[in-house]
Structure formats: structure tokens, C-alpha cells
Amino acid sequence: MGFPLEKSEDEWKKELGPEKYRIMRQKGTEHPGAGRFTHQFPKQGVFVCAACKELLYKASTKFESHCGWPAFFDNLPGKVKRIEDNSYGMHRVEAVCANCGGHLGHIFKGEGYSNPTDERHCINSASLEFHNEATNDN
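The structure corresponding to this sequence follows.
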């Protein structure tokens, strides 16, 4: 599957380090509650892809879901690609960075959260960086 930013796995391994590589390139996950962004709720700013720095989520779309991972109800337009994921005997939708293909987490719909999309983007903190400064996209 092609993405605008492509690198060899050796390049990704070197740039990301072991934990981010495991999560972002090997589709791993963090332990629930272990991520640095799980309990942070900034009012402004953006969350970007930890691998390629692509803007992904406005801080204003982050919400408390009590699931153990950072949760967002929507991504910036065109920034997160949805891929059907039937691994581990489950039907889920994987969220990946539309620029580099890095694994972010999964997207769940119809869980009854009172947000504008009724979606929960359950995202690994290791897949994100936070930028507090305002941008044209937030």
C-alpha cells in the first residue's frame, strides 16, 4: 500500500526507536493507561504523527472515553486513513497516518459517546506528538 512518504523499514527503525517502531510499523499497542496523552486535555493545539509530523487531530476533538488510550471524535480532513482490520478474530477499523502509513490505533463507531460523530479514535500516545502552538488548521 503506497503512501506519500515512504521509507525502508531500516530507516523507520533507526528514526523511531524500538517502542515507536513496534507500535507504528508493527501495529503494536501500549498498555491501557500507560500513554502520556491519555489524561491530557489541552484546549488548543494539534496532535501530529510521531513518525512524519503530519497534522492529525485538533486538541478540541480529544475527549475522555475511559478506555485507557487517548480518544478523539474526529481527525483533520484527509489526514487519517481507515483500513479494515480483521485480526485477532475481531472486526475493527485501523487508523493509520495518511502520509506515512504509521499505525495510530483503531476507530470505533456507534458506542454511544455524546460527541458530534459518535466515533472514538482510540490512538496510541506513542504514535502522537503534541504541538501547543496554533496553526492554520486548528
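The chain is about 10% helix and 30% strand.
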